[in-house]
Amino acid sequence: RVTPFEVQRLLPTQHPARMAYENYLRKFDDGRSSYIVVQKQTPFSEQEIHRISTEIGDFLENFAGITDVAGPHNAKYFAFTDGFELREFFADEKLTAEGRKRLSSELWNKMLIAENFKSFLLRFTFAPSLPLKDEAPLIKKLQTFLDSLPTKYPGIETHALGTKIASAAFLEEVRFNLQIITPVLLLLIGLIFFVLYRSWQILAWNF
Predict the structure, then answer these.
(1) H or E element: which one contains 157?
(2) Beta carbons of 39 and 118 less than 8 angstroms apart
(3) 128/206 Cα distance (integer angstroms)
(4) Residues 139-173: pLDDT tens digits?
(5) Which of 135, 112, 173, 146 is nearest to 31 (CA)?
(6) Backbone angle region of 97, left / alpha / beta, with phi > 0 → left and psi within -120 to 50 → alpha
(7) CB within 8 A of 17, min separation 6: which ones?
């Protein structure tokens, strides 16, 4: 097992700077944040965006190890009337007039739904309480679910992004190499040595 270098370990455990930094990491570590991009060649209808986002969101929220699920189906913006309040972009699977206007604002432009309506984004967070050993199986279930969506919604593509997702993909590639490619390479190397050995025997016999 390889333990990555962490700069805070240069300070004593109870050092105020280390404690403050580790507390910051627990609260705001972007390494736990992940994203799902859903796209297709032609524009989505508002109803499609809401339904697909809701289905993905409901799937993610079934896992105790995933928190802070946000997408077009439940994203909210600040509005002010008699006081500040949070309002959803969608009502009855359609963008509200104000929600559509907010999407083109500097704050939300290209952050939730693309201007051409050909893609949209969901965000979620891996909970700090999720054991490391459970991350890869969870990500595999997520990927299997995402791969099944084009059957229900023809023409769409889904892409999961994030540090932990990339790490799981890397470890899966390493596992594949160790279980499949490495034995094959060793077999080929052994075969080459065997052929060389036989060739040497034939050569020695002739002399």
Answers:
(1) strand 157-162
(2) yes
(3) 70
(4) 999 999 999 999 999 999 999 988 788 777 666 65
(5) 135
(6) alpha
(7) 11
Record the pTM. 0.72
What are the residue ranges of helices labelled H in 29-159? 46-61, 97-103, 132-152
What is the DSSP code (8-state) at residue 11? S
Q: Which residue has the tokens 């972009």?
A: 89
In the numeric block, which tokens belong to residue 125? 């967070």
Written as six digits, the tokens of 122 are 């969901």
Question: Do β-strands 33-39 and 94-95 pair in parallel, antiparallel, or remain unpaired?
Answer: unpaired
Q: What count of other Cβ atoms lies within 10 Å of the Cβ of residue 167?
A: 14
In three-state secondary structure terms, 82 is: coil
CA of residue 130 relative to chain centroid, distance = 15
The whole-angstrom separation of Cα 46 and Cα 53 is 11
Name the stretches of the chain with pLDDT < 50. Answer: 1-5
Q: Is the CB of residue 168 less than 8 Å from the CB of residue 126? A: no
Backbone angles phi, psi at 179, to 5 degrees: -85, -30
DSSP designation for 118 = S
Q: How far apart are CA 182 and CA 180, in angstroms?
A: 6
d(CA 187, CA 90): 59
* 72 contacts 89 by C-beta, under 8 angstroms: yes
**How confident is the model over 34-54, as pLDDT tens digits?**
999 999 999 999 999 999 999
